[in-house]
Amino acid sequence: MYAADLHIHTDVSDCSMNAEEILKLALDKGITHLAFTDHDTTDCAGEHLKLAEKYGIRAIPGVEMSAYDYKKKKKVHILGYGYQTNRQIEAIGRETLKKRTENCLKQIEILNTLGYHVPEEEAARMGRTGVYKQHILDYLVKTGQEETMFGEVYHNIFKNNGPCDFDITYPAAEDVIQAIKADKGSAVLAHPGQQNNYSSIHRLTEAGLDGIELNHPSHRKNDRIRVEEYCRTYQLIMTGGSDFHGSYEKTRTELGGFPAHKSSEILFLS
């Protein structure tokens, strides 16, 4: 049996739950195979593999790398699976994590000038590998400064041209793919329907792309049809996953609710 969720985040990046809590839930959901894909870091990957084995669930090392297609001017997320080393992935990921944390600290400074109160010492404790806006929003809720994670602060300050609606520069998508390949991993384009980056696929395959995420919470029927067509054309595998973030996701998805395509089972055979 192959019931796989290959897109799951933990508290190592921006999920409200830790790996063991997720594995217990995965066991209840009947998930047989999974990959934890924390953003831009392989931290705890080895520990997570051992933990999954304890629960009788097959796991492979995973990561989700943030990138950008500078020719098409599109954000691109690349999932890396089954890497045997991590030097190249970490070299790129560390820089992204550093920039993201610096970006969030600037956002905290702005929030404090707007009358919110996020002490510097609290900011330093946010996140295990870096600070994410979810951590900031969660702190505001827990301290009674905001009613919900995705309420007024999120919509009016972090989004819609609000004072904290600014981002970092990301590595080139081709460089990310090549880093994953150099670490002997498989590179998969995450949720192209969500970021509308189908036009990047040809160039990404030239860089070494191995697959495309078929099933994802943001994908509708037409997205799945397009992914299938691209995968047939370029002979790519198809994956899938819930993109699970626990309560740190605006639209909560069910773990295992977007299972990986059968063709992705090859990732577990190497």
The main β sheet shows up as: 5 strands, mixed
Arrangement of strands in the largest sheet: 4-5-6-7-8
Q: Provide the CATH topology.
A: TIM Barrel
Shape, per Cα inertia axes = globular
| The CATH superfamily title | Metal-dependent hydrolases
The sequence of SSEs as H and E is EHEHEEEHHHHHEHHEHE
CATH architectural label: Alpha-Beta Barrel
**How many strand elements?**
8
The CATH class is Alpha Beta
- Identify low-pLDDT runs: none
Q: Can you walk me through this structure?
A:
This protein is α/β, with parallel strands linked by helices. It has ten helices and eight strands. Strand 1, helix 1 and strand 2 form a beta-alpha-beta unit. Helix 3 packs across helix 7. The longest helix is centred in the middle third of the chain and has 27 residues. The chain starts with a strand and ends in a 30-residue tail after the last strand. 49% of the residues are buried. The model has no long low-confidence stretch (mean pLDDT 96). Pfam families: PHP. GO terms for molecular function: 5'-3' DNA exonuclease activity; 5'-3' RNA exonuclease activity. It comes from Faecalicatena orotica. This is Polymerase/histidinol phosphatase N-terminal domain-containing protein.
